[in-house]
Each structure stands twice: as C-alpha cells, then as structure tokens.
Task: inverse folding
C-alpha cells in the first residue's frame, strides 16, 4: 500500500471568488514584483477573477487530516525508539 501524502496542493480555479462569489472564474496570476515572488514561497499562489477583476493570493497547500490512530502509532514508534536507543547507550557506554 502506497502511503498518501499529508500535504496536498490545492487548486482554487474551481472555487468561489472572494469578492463577487462567482464560481469557476479564478485564474492563476503571475507575481507582479519581486516582493510577491519572494512572498509566494511555494505556499501562496496569486489569482485573478475573470468576472470582477479581483486579484489576490490564496494559500495553495492544504494539510490532510491525520487520523488519531496514525498519531498514536507515531507516538508509540517514537517512544519505542527512545527506549531502544537508551538501552543501547546504557549497554555500550557504561562499560
Ligand atoms: Zn470575482
């Protein structure tokens, strides 16, 4: 089974415009200057509404909800690793 990614890229093209509320009119817009280019950082994307002309940035990644079971599994894994590492260090460093 292939593990599913926790961080997903989000595309706002089919979402509602925050200004006029029309669905499906957002289009990608290039960063206009260096500041916008730097501030993107792979987290933001700039969009323009073809209906009303609104332009702004929208967050372009979304975190997948992680189940409690997965979190508990990783916590258990961390604790088990810590116990094993401590045991190994005591076994070899205390000679
Ligand atoms: Zn709009």
Result:
């Amino acid at each position: 089974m292939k593990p599913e990614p926790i961080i997903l890229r989000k595309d706002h093209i089919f979402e509602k415009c925050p200004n006029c509320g029309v669905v499906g009119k957002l289009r990608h817009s290039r960063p206009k200057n260096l500041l916008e280019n730097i501030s993107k950082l792979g987290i933001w994307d700039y969009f323009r509404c073809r209906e009303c002309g609104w332009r702004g940035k929208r967050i372009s990644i979304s975190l997948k909800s992680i189940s409690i079971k997965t979190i508990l599994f990783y916590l258990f894994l961390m604790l088990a690793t810590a116990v094993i590492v401590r045991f190994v260090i005591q076994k070899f460093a205390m000679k």
